[in-house]
Structure formats: structure tokens, C-alpha cells
Please model this.
Amino acid sequence: MTMALLEIKNLHAKVEEKEILQGINLTVNAGEVHAIMGPNGSGKSTLANVLAGRENYEVTSGEVLYEGKNLLEMDIEDRARAGVFLAFQYPIEIPGVSNAHFLKTALNGVRKYRGLEELDAMDFLTLVKEKMKLLQMDPTFLNRGVNEGFSGGEKKRNDILQMAMLDPKLGILDETDSGLDIDSLRIVAEGVNALRNPNRAFVLVTHYQRLLDYIVPDFVHVLSGGKIIASGDKELAVHLEERGYGWVIEGGAKAVGA
Amino acid sequence: MSAPNKALEELTGQDYKYGFVTDVEEDRIPKGLNEDIVRMISAKKNEPEFMLEWRLRAFRHWLTMKEPTWQAVKYPPINYQDLYYYSAPKKKVKLNSLDEVDPEVLATFNKLGISLAEQERLTGVAVDAVFDSVSVGTTFKAKLKELGIIFCSFSEAVQEHPDLIKKYLGSVVPYSDNYYATLNSAVFSDGSFVYIPKGVRSPMELSTYFRINASETGQFERTLIIADEGAYVSYLEGCTAPMRDENQLHAAVVELVALDNASIKYSTVQNWYPGDKEGKGGIYNFVTKRGKCAGKKSKISWKYPSCILQGDDSVGEFYSVAVTNNYQQADTGTKMIHIGKNTRSTIVSKGISAGHGQNTYRGLVKINKGASGARNYSQCDSLLMGDKCGAHTFPYIEVKNSSAQMEHEATTSKIGEDQLFYCKQRGINAEDAVNMIVNGFCKQVFKELPMEFAVEAQKLLSVSLEGSVG
Model:
């Protein structure tokens, strides 16, 4: 059997002395889409941030292997360059820095790490315009400051554009659907779907089933109290929508064989 | 300390790279300040009688003045008797060309990236280089002369164009203006002089580079720029100094005069030694810079103090970036005095504080009674790097004409962990990320700078945040 892309083993992590993750086990293979659902405060976003290496999230025990390597020992930027991409719940504004400049710097950092030639301005523009078309983004976006004055939907789309450009192996979407109207949600979902391929995996962190109508997952996991308490296929998400998280937490999910 | 703060500390903690000392023979007059010293300076420079009288009037007035205490900066009292007021690289004869300049001095400017010989051949910028108290060389002089433009050292202008000096010296900043300006008027040693004749557009950027080399020496330079009717000039100024334990004093005066329809664009990058990480050494910088839009529809845009908008429809613009690092303190700002009708002014000030730096912006916008239809827009933004620095903003507004329109905006932001994390998560390393964020913050100002200067300013910021870009 081939090596898993991501293997999380008994992961415990705390934020400001509070233990949030209490033994996560999860294996993600290339090509798969995993949805992680759960009530507020269950640890969904913490998991996403720990994988990306954010400071102030302290791993207390457990192990995370990415392509067989110890992910937890890598710097934030090296994780990114090695192909771990986090789409933010609230993408950050960097005033005065143009999207084009930001993207080109990021892309060339990533390409250098992967042993690829850095792109010059012309090749970069060709590539970025092609990707923007895919996400139905106006080319004037390139000249605007990074997320500066963007609407919620524009920010999320910009994150997806960055993902399309940086060509990650593992895309982690942290509540990408929050604050999106239905049209933006569809566009973002279409962008993600277009990026699905046998070499790339996604971990979708979401509170609602809604996103999963557009991005159909291979697996659905329910996170509660810092642990995955149920796993199943996309049907599990449908049941959750109907019966609420309380039903799984009380053990109901086992009854449907999830 | 959290990881991002540590990264910031490493980045901002880099050493000042212009801190070397040049070993040249110096011609100094004795320490201290009295009438004899003022006479000695004037004599050294072989000045005409009117100059000596002007200096002496200033000196006598200075004795009656008190050192101001309104600034937000703190420093131990300066002993004005314990300073040298004149220091020049020793030379035997009057300099006729760059070839005669002390090679050590030329090498210094080379090291600073200001190659006087090459500058003349390669770039479109004319440079006047001032080393301690005297101007050591002005490039492109001949070419500018063909257009009637005078660009030379102040001392030379006193000799060659006494009428212009008599007419305009002190016309914008009178010798009695303020403590440091008055001291400067008494003992100023050299500086740059620019005159652009009627209707002439200077074909190149004019630039002066100041370097304090000698120890325990005050540098008092004086710059006078006159744009006659319809003339245009863009002028740049840069400054550096060696690293020394004692504090050095810099008290400059800049006067700009824009006549009818004339336009002056003045920019400066000040990258003084900020002192070391314990707060030892550094430069005391007290500067009076003022422009007078004397004519109708004249325009001055620049960094640093005040603009008097006297002519109707005249325009004043002020763009500034100030950086403080280590224990550096800065108290900078501008004054826009609206006198003429329909005068307009814009102020954009960006302050960056790193280490234990304290940055203060102080701005006055005054609309006089007769200035109907005057407009001002002010924006002051501060960026804090780390958690030990500070930023302060004091805007003052005085409006005496009800038709005036005023707008003021101010923001303070921190280079957030969020921004750094976002950049890193996209594969950008910490150093590039900080440079990017800081440059983005300053973009509004940098886009106003002449091209070559903008590049230099960006480099200054991005290399180290070690000095002060202003």
C-alpha cells in the first residue's frame, strides 16, 4: 500500500493552557476529500491551525506525518512550500501590498523550494490570469491591496485563487463557507472542485452541511470535545443536518452504521 | 516572547551599516561658541561683510533665547560649549574639480553608494556632497549652467551670487525664528544652493548628501532653493553619520522659495545612526525646514516642517515616513499655514516604530482669516513592530475662515501575528513578509518620491529598519 499523504496519530494540543485536541486520529490519502464537522468549540479550527503550524497552538503529544515526514517539526513557511495550504476563516488584509506582488513572492518562494524555476513577470501574469478566469475574478483584483477593502466573498475567493496558484497537495479549508452568500459559495466550491485531482487531498472544516452540497466529500468526520467521535460517508452529513450534533454525541450515529 | 515578536526583533536588530569613520586630516577651529568663533567661521569662508553681520545678529539673538522643551523626546542637556562648530577635511588649495578632492573623502562617498565621479557620468542626478562642514563637490554643474540653473555649495553662492543670497537668505526662516534655526544662522558652515530661473524646468533631480564624520562636531547646514516664476525643480537630500558613543548634533535649516506658478518638490531620506541597542550614542537632529509659496499658483511638496501658502491657489504637500529603532526618538511633523485664497494642502505622515523607538507626529494646520476656500487633508498612520515601542500623534488645527474644509484621519496598527502567519502560510519567509508589510504601509508616500529615491528608500527600509527614513 502506498504511503498516506497525512497521518494524524493521537494528537493532543492546547491553546493558552486549555487542552482543545484530545487525541485526534485521522488518515488522509491523496485524492480524497474529508469533511470535518462539529459543534462550535469542538476543536475544528484548532486542528486546521495546528496542521498549518500557527504559534500559540501547542502540541502536547501525538504525531503528524505528512508524506511520511514529521510535519510538526517543519517551519510554517516550509509546510506551505511542501504543499500544505490553509484557506482562512477570516483572510487577513495587508494594506498597500498588491495582490500581484504578494502572489508572485509566495509562488516563487514555493517554486524555489520545490526545485522549480522562478517565474518572471510575464509567465506569472499568464498563469494568474488563467486561474482568475477559473474563479470568475475580475483582473483588476491583481492591483488591489491584499484583501484590502474586499467583501467577505471576495476574500474567500482570493484565498482560493492563492490555492490555485500555489498548487498544494493538501488543501485545508477552515470554515471557508462562513459569511458567504449562495452565489459566492457556489463559485468558491466550483473553484475547489476544479482543483480536485488524484494527487491532491482536501480537509474541509465546516459547521454546516451546506458546503457539502457543492463539494461532495468522500468521508465525513464528527469532532466533539477534541476527538473524532464518528466517521462515515456523505450520508452522515445529511443525517447530521436532520438531527443535529446532539444525536451523534449521544451515540445515535452508530445506529446508522456510520 | 512569542515567536513572531522574536522574528521582528531579529529583523529590526540588525546593525547600522553606515557607521564607519573616515580617517582624514581635519581642519578644526577650537571647541566652544562665542563671537570670536562666529567671526572665525566667517573668516575661514572668506565671507563678505553682510554675511558676518547677519551671523553676529543671529548669535546675539541666540544668547537671549531658551532651548525649547515642547518636544515629546527626552534627552540630557546639550553642552553647546563642548562642541566643535567647524570641521573640514584639510586641503591645500581651492578645489577646481573632483580630482582635487581628498581621495579618502571620495572613497567615503563611494562606500555610501554616492560615487561623485560616476554619478556625473552614469545617472541623471546632480549631487552636492557635504562632508562635515564643507561641500566637497557638486556634479553636473556645467550642464545645469547652460540652462541658467545655479546648483552649488552655499559658500560658493555667497562668493559668486551675493545678490541672490542677500535677497532670499532668511526670507522664509528669519534668523530669529527658533532656537536651533538661530544657532544655525550664527554658525552654519555649508550646504546647498539652488536657483532655477524663470520658466526653466530642471532636467534632472538635484541632490545633496550630508555626512557627519568628525567626532564631537555639530553639523549646521543651510539649504536655500529658489524657483523663480514658472520654474520646476525636484530636490533630494540624504544623510548618514558614523557610529559613535557620544551624541552628535545636527541642526539644519532649509528654505524653499516658490514664486508665481513655480513648483518645488523636496524629498529627504535621513538615515542617521540610531544609537546602539542600549541607547548609547546617536544623532540629535533639530531641523527647521520651511517653504514659502510666495507666488500665485506656486506649489511646494515635501517632507518636513512648514509650508506658508501665501500666493492665491498655491499648493503645499507633505509626505513623510519616519522610522525609529533601538532607543531612537523622533518628533517630526509639519505646519501648513494658509494665507492666500483657495490654497490647498495635503499631509500624509507614516511613522514606523521598532525596538524601543518612540515616534511622534506633530502637525499644525492654520487657516488665516483671508484664506477663503482653503482646504486641507491630513492623514497620520503609525505602525508598531513589537511591543516595546510607541507612537504618538498631536494634530493641531486653527481655522479662522468658515469656508475652509478640513479632513483628518489617523490610524495605528501593529504588524500583527495574523499578517505574519498569513504570509508564512503562503510560503513567504518572515523577513520578506515584514519588508512587504512595511513597504505596503509606506506605499502612499513612496509613490510620491522620485523613482531613484523611492528605490533607495525602499532599500533603506527593507535592509534593516536601522535608521530613519524621513
Q: What stands out?
A: The radius of gyration of chain B is 22 Å. The first strand of chain B starts at residue 26 and ends at 28. The longest helix of chain B spans residues 430-446. Chain B touches chain A through 26 residues (CB under 8 Å).
